Amino acid sequence: MSAELSYMGVDLTRPRVAFFELSSCEGCQLQLLNKEASLLDFFNLLQVVQFREAMSEKDDTYDVAFVEGSVTRADEEERLKIIRKRAKILIAFGSCACFGGVNQLKNRFADQDWVKREVYGDFAIDTQPVRPLADIVEVDVNIYGCPVKKEEVERIVTDLVVGKTILYPKYPVCMDCKANENICLFDLGEPCLGPVTRAGCDAWCPNNRMGCWGCRGPAEAANVEQLKNIMAEHGFSSETLLDRLECFGGFSAFVDGLRQPQQDTGKQGSGI
Amino acid sequence: MIFKVIAKQELAKLFEALLANRVVGPVRKGSDKNGTPIYSFEVVYDFTQLQLDYTSTQYPAKRFFLPYTETLCTFEIAGDSWEKKVDFNIYQPQVLFGLHACDINALNKLDKVLLESAYPTPYYASKRKNMFIVGIDCEPQPYCFCRSMGTDTALHGFDMFLTDLGKKYFVEIQSAAAYNYLKHMQTSDPTEEDHLRYMAVEEARHEKFMAQVDTTDLTKILDMEFQSEVWKHWGDKCLSCGTCASVCPTCYCYGVAETVDLDLKHAAKMKHLHSCNLIDFAEVAGGHNFRPDSHTRLKYRYYHKHRGFVEAFEESLCVGCGRCGEACLANITVPEVIASVRHEEI
User: Fold this and answer.
1) Which residue of chain A comes nearest to B69, CA vs CA?
2) Which of A69, A105, A234, B72 could form an SS bridge with B269, CB 3.0 to 4.6 Å?
3) Is A57 in the same domain as A122?
4) What is the rounded CA–CA span in Å between residue B26 and residue B4?
5) Cα–Cα nearest to B239, from A166, A122, A173
């Protein structure tokens, strides 16, 4: 780490940054450590005071908190409130933190006790319906994705450090996908949530001929109603659409409206 | 204009001669779920890769002269000063081998805005001025409405244009560069029989067009129907995904973003092609949005192409290639939208 940090002759302060995980796979934090080519430059911008996956030292004085994961236990809720009090900027880091992520799939089951028994058996454990961070505390910045895209995190962190406005695409993944001149997944007979999902991932999955699962949540003008017609026209069942829309929790506001009344029995949960 | 005819196998020799440059042409990229071939413009190294009898490509050749993302300039920062570096991103002359008339006309339309306007775009000019175009005739597809837009034949904007006469090509030569390349092939002057064959081929082609757009008085009708309910109808369907603009050979609108590198010693000004259908498009400082509704955005895309551009240049900014309608998952097509504005049955 070089001693001084400056941009265009203006001295900058390295923000004191801490990383935390609630219920999650910690894969988003791992993404940060994965891209070794830019690792030194990335950490040179920050003063990391707590990062369990990367260091042993631990300090509870920080400006920016990256919180990965969703809230599924009472102690996590308390921990998150403490983090919020200590941090000037709280970043919901990854889809679990932003929307509940894959974890929130359990909310879709009406009988939560049954879920608990299936997963944990007789093991005594506190587990609640899954909630995103914003249900409990105020979130300043969302970084979407399952996992997050390192390039996007780098851009957001750079903008944060030099004091630029943090901007996200509001348009859907199709725009990124078309810029890569991919063959449309629907042409290949695959379902895809690209037309309604927020871009910024460079169409990571469609580039690899995998239909989008909507991990980044809805684009700002998401026309889910029209996508429903498109999926039907291409021969996909409403369950196929709902499977994808429900997977990461970003589309929870749309899902209840799309559920057919006859499919309600026993499956629909409390939502998030 | 000089006309020649060549035996079909002579074309490989022209290709070989042009290979000293970067050659871009139609290749088969894959198949859709029904086994229908999907074609794409790619850099080609071998004549046998070229699929000159291609139907249409899903994407235009736009990325070779108007890339989706382009670095406009970079900055090297040292202390409190910086050095700006501008690169027009042209590395070698490009040959576009096998463009259909619609795509040649698309380039001619882009030229009006990006080359011949008060402020030419050097990033486009650098590529466009270093270009050699071999056009080829096409088989009209059910979605092609170029004949309605007057772009089913290319009158200029190419170096050489080939028409398939069966065993030979009828060749139009329009540039000195193209004339010089003739020496690589065995050519002959067309006979009267070739002329007749050419006319018969063209006539047969004209009869194959199925889709059409009535452009009569269209600028006025669009003005009259500004408040029409049909815009809401199409807006409700629209996904605001920008696919129509991404596959359009003439859409050139863009956004510029400045990025700072992680090392804080480098920065770049990046240009990204944009689309007026995106909700971000008309957003300005403070988060205000001039076109928050899907139908307004869709409407203005049609007004730019079929009204504004016509008033400025006396021609439409649409070549009728039909790619937007084919790519649109919501099945919004230009012939249907225009017909609905004209209160025609669709």
Assistant:
1) A179
2) B72
3) yes
4) 24
5) A173
Tell which of A127, A162, A197 closes a domain: A162
- Residues A133 and A245 occupy one common structural domain: no
Domain ranges for chain B, please list them: 2-341
A235 in the same domain as A116: no
Consecutive 10-residue runs of chain B (346 residues): their mean pLDDT?
95 97 97 97 97 97 96 94 93 94 98 95 94 97 97 97 97 97 96 97 96 96 96 98 98 95 96 96 91 96 97 96 98 97 85
Question: B73 has which bridge partners?
Answer: B86, B269
Closest residue of A to B274, CA-based? A175
CA distances from B244 to A87, A199, A256, B139 (A): 44, 17, 30, 22
Q: CB atoms < 10 A from the CB of B228, how many? A: 15
Q: Which of A139, A162, A185 is the last residue of a domain?
A: A162
The enclosing H or E element of B117 equals none
Nearest CA among B64, B37, B275 for reference residue A219:
B275
Distance from CA of B153 to the nearest CA of A (A): 27
Helix/strand/coil for A16: strand
Alpha helices of chain B — where are they, by DSSP H? 11-18, 101-114, 122-128, 146-149, 176-181, 192-206, 218-224, 230-237, 243-246, 294-303, 309-313, 323-327, 334-341
Backbone angles phi and psi of A151, in degrees to 5: -60, -40
Overall number of domains in chain A: 2
What is the model's pTM?
A: 0.93
Is the pLDDT reported for residue A237 higher than 50? Answer: yes
CATH number at residue A85: 3.40.50.700
Alpha helices in B239-281 (DSSP H): 243-246
Q: What's the DSSP call for residue B55?
A: -
Most A-contacting residue of B38, B39, B262, B298 (CB-CB within 10 A), to test interface:
B262
Cis amide prior to A261 (ω within 30 degrees): no
Asked whether residue A270 is domain-assigned, the answer is: no
**A170, A187, A198, A225: which to substitute to probe chain B, counting the most B Cβ within 10 Å?**
A187
Report whether A195 contacts A172 (CB < 8 A). Answer: yes
Q: Does A226 touch chain B (CB under 8 A)?
A: yes
Q: What is the amino acid identity at position B2?
A: I
Amino acid found at B293: D
DSSP secondary structure string, A122-150? T--------B-GGGTS--SEEE-BTTB-H
Do residues A200 and A91 share a domain? no
Q: Cα(B337)–Cα(B243) distance, rounded to whole angstroms?
A: 16
Q: Which residue of A has its CA nearest to B82?
A: A8
Judge whether B117 and B101 are in contact, CB under 8 Å: no
Whether residues A147 and A185 fall in one domain: no
Count each helix (H run) and each strand (E run) in chain B, helices first.
13, 12
DSSP A107: G
ipTM attached to this prediction: 0.94
The 3-state DSSP class for residue A67 equals strand
